[in-house]
Description:
It is a single chain. The protein is an alpha/beta fold. It folds into four domains: 4-84 and 483-525, no CATH class; 92-206, no CATH class; 213-286, no CATH class; 291-449, 3-Layer(aba) Sandwich (Rossmann fold). The chain has eleven helices and 22 strands. Strands 14-13-15-16-21-20-19 form a seven-stranded mixed sheet, with helices on one face. Helix 2 runs antiparallel to helix 4 (57-77). It is elongated and about 130 Å long.
Amino acid sequence: MPPIFFPNAAAGWLALLGLAVPLAIYLWNRRPGRVVRVGSVRWLEAAANQRLRNIKPEQLLLFLLRATMLGLLALAVAEPLQLLPVPPARGQVLLAPGVNTEALAPVRPLLDSLRQRGYQLRQLSDSRSVSAVRPWAVLGLGDTTAQTPGRLATDSVLVAAPNLWNTVQLAADSLPGRPLVVVAPLSVASFQGTRPALPASVRWLPLPPSDSSRWPVAAWQPHPDSLVVLMANGSESAVAYQQVRVRRPAAGQLIGGNWNGAEIRLASPKELLVTENGRHRTMPLLHRAARWHLSHDAAHAASAWVLTAALRAVAPTLPLRPRLVVSTSETVPTDSLDWLFWLRDAPLPARWATDASVRVWQEADSDTKSFATEFQPATSAAPSTIARLDTTSSPGAVPVWTTAAGRPLLSWQPPGRYRLHSRLDAAWSSLADSPELPALLLPLLQPTAPPAFQPDSRQLPLSQVRGPVAAVVDGTEPTAPRRELAPWLVLAAGLLFVLERLLAARRNRAAPVGTRSSESSSTQRQPA
């Protein structure tokens, strides 16, 4: 029998004192005797014997019912819980979002072996921790003769790449103590932020990537009769960019060229319409080079030097080389800007604080306190240390870079305000020594594109995905399922109460009849 324990045993013992109530009623609640006038002592003796026989078995039964009812209520107050047997910790196969049946073809033998070992199939999602158990028949494994199951929730390549760090960590928290096998492509776009410490039970089954991918990134018009389209060619190790010059078509017509199965149409003089896999997205058509302005004071001089070097490293990879101006003056040119890097403790000028067309970069103030943590991008083998971090958050801010402590390192607030909660100074962080800094800035500096379009096909090594192992917490209570017995005890006490009321009513109805019969017998005997 499963064990039973009482969380509130002291309250139950106090409630058992209520058993004294029916005992007192049973011992001292006697009805007053009737006065019977008889003509002889021998009739008085007979009446006394009849009063002694007045304690009927029904009264003892009522006492037992009342005592049992109160005992059940006392047990209910103690809130007894019954520990049920712990179910076996079955392994779980977790499919990454967007994975279709065709992509699982190379690993079908491994998945079938996991199915035969009792593993269950689930899907990861960004909107919830983990899905319900899915039948293996959706992958064509196991018993496929049953009712036709639903399909996998898959999407095309244009769907936003999930952050597998967060989704796998949520799944590990919702399925503790179970072996987890994550089936996912190890593309760089699927891992964002700092790598968390996952349990040792999490294993990775990487899917083989595609041979290559090719997609248009940006376009600009150097001359009135020509266009230049920047194409990205992705592989497992790197992404290469290629400029393709084509003839400018009329508005609404297709642009000729090999776009890897996609169609590019000139929608308007300022944007192109790209159609891939039946889905559409717009791409801005640039007419001039971007204009960047960096203004800094003496307190931000070290950060300005690092940021300037990173921006100059990024500039050749952009469609048009931007014009960068570095100044120590607070005076900002009044002409149109695309980026303003304001590295000062002074507030942002009102002229640019209200301009939604300009993207602004700011750093932490000088009064920022010490906060030791780390930041490790997905493509970096070593983490960067953060010595000082601004932990205040603005309403509506969205984290872009996240530290190991879960605090935002870089946040974005619409319409285009970026705030680095630390600095690129060596006394503040080691981001200046990170070779990944230009690559981190590149997605922010590129022309505006839908955030859902991330077909980066670079692959992470499996050793880098595994990462640190979360420490096991000792002294935790067992996760065995528990059954509450208090509702059943209250129900049983209610049934006994109904039975006790029925017996008490029956006794009350039978008492006058016995009294009348004794009176008639004595009346008949008195004349004698």
